[in-house]
Structures are given as C-alpha cells and as structure tokens.
Amino acid sequence: KYTASTEKDSQKSSVSPFTVVTPIVCNDEDESYAYEEDCELYTQCKDGVARLMKCPEGTVFDRMGKKCYREDWVDCDSR
C-alpha cells in the first residue's frame, strides 16, 4: 500500500559530514595562505580578492615558503 510516509521514507538520503572553513579576508597585501583541509590547495589574495588555487601536479603548498614545492620537500602532516 502506498502512503505519504512511504514516499517520504523512499526519499531519505544520507548527508556527508562537512567542515566549516573560516573565510580568508584579503587586505591590501597580495599574499597566499595554506588551505587547512588539503595540502594541494591554497588561498591566494590578489587585489583584495581571495581565490582558491591548486598547486601543479606533484607539488603541495608550503605555509612557510608561501608557495608550491615538490611533495617530498613539504611536511603536509604537520597541519
């Protein structure tokens, strides 16, 4: 027998967990910041606008050097 609750039950879906990321506020300086959730990503501030960027293949963002370096040169686990 079809009921409204049957339809509701069939439409249930799972929700994946997510992380709330504090947005970067760019000031007048052009600067790059590590993206905490993924070492291949970083936030680049340019002309007051924040952009999420990805390092070239085989590299990860180094928070000290403020740019992408080879994966074996950067300790990504320390984040």
TrEMBL record:
Pfam families: CBM_14 (PF01607)
Stretches assigned to the Chitin-binding type-2 domain: 23-78
Gene Ontology cellular component terms for the protein in this record: extracellular region
Classification via SMART domains: ChtBD2
Protein name listed in UniProt: Platelet glycoprotein Ib alpha chain
Entry's Gene Ontology molecular function annotations: chitin binding
Gene3D superfamilies membership: Chitin binding domain (2.170.140.10)
InterPro entries membership: Chitin-bd_dom (IPR002557), Chitin-bd_dom_sf (IPR036508)
